[in-house]
Design goal:
By secondary structure, this protein is α+β, with helices and mostly antiparallel strands. The protein contains 2 helices and 3 strands, in the order ααβββ. It has helices spanning 3-13, 17-24; strands spanning 31-34, 38-48, 55-65. A 3-stranded antiparallel beta sheet has the order 1-2-3, with helices on one face. The radius of gyration is 14 Å and the shape is elongated.
Amino acid sequence: GDEPTIRSISDIFDFHPLLLADVVNCPQRPKAEAYENQLLLVVRMVTCSDESDEITMEQVSIILGM
């Protein structure tokens, strides 16, 4: 969630504005979105704590250049 860093990375890689909105909007449903030169994958990372048997899920956004 560091906005200046996200904007800087977006400027370097020329991310589509809707792609950026999907990345910063949490939580998103898992999905794949194709943009002009990028593919966005939104997935869930599931982790289980050995000590408390607690399961947590986090959003992971993966951007692939085409």
